[in-house]
C-alpha cells in the first residue's frame, strides 16, 4: 500500500470537526477534570491546587492558543506528586482525544523560548509513540509549592497518554522559575505549530505509514 499521502475521501467533514475533548479521570488519589479546545484563543480556567502549576498550565493555553480547563481535587496532604502526574496524564488523554486521526496537521513542532537569562528548546512529534527525553537541571528543589522533580512527572504522564515524542532541553538558566517557565512556553509554542493545519496537507495523515 502506498496511498498514505493520498487524501482520503472521508476527510472534509473530519476537518471541520471541532478539536475539543473533555476527560474526567478519578482514582483514589485524585479526581481530575480536563477540557481542551485545540483551536482556542488561549483562555484557561485552572484549579490544580498548586499555584505555580496553574501558572505553567496558563502558559500552555496562552502560548499554544489552546483553551484549557483543569480542575483537580488531589491528595495534596501527602505531597504534590499524584496531583501533578495525574494532571499530566489527563491532559495527555484529552489531547489524544481532541487531535483525532491527525489528518492535515503539521505533526512536528519546535520552539526556542527565552526568559531573561533562561533558554529552553522543546521539540515535539505527534508520532503516536510515547517518548520523553528531558534534560533540565533545576537550580532549586521547589518553585512555590511545586517540587521541581514533578515537572518530569507531568511531562511523562502527558507523553504516555498523548502518544507523542517530546524532547525538552533547558539550555541555560539560573532562576528556577525562569527555567520552568521557558520549558512550558516552548512546549506550548512547539505544540501550536505541530497541531496547526498545514493547508498543503489538507486531508492527509502526515506519515508514509498512513496512520499515526
Ligand atoms: Mn512567571
UniProtKB/TrEMBL annotation:
Pathway: Amino-acid biosynthesis; L-histidine biosynthesis; L-histidine from 5-phospho-alpha-D-ribose 1-diphosphate: step 6/9. Keywords: Amino-acid biosynthesis, Cytoplasm, Histidine biosynthesis, Lyase. HAMAP family: HisB. It comes from Comamonas avium. It catalyses: D-erythro-1-(imidazol-4-yl)glycerol 3-phosphate = 3-(imidazol-4-yl)-2-oxopropyl phosphate + H2O. The lineage of its organism: Bacteria, Pseudomonadati, Pseudomonadota, Betaproteobacteria, Burkholderiales. This is Imidazoleglycerol-phosphate dehydratase. Its EC number is 4.2.1.19. It is found in: Cytoplasm. Belongs to the imidazoleglycerol-phosphate dehydratase family. It is an enzyme of class 4 (lyase).
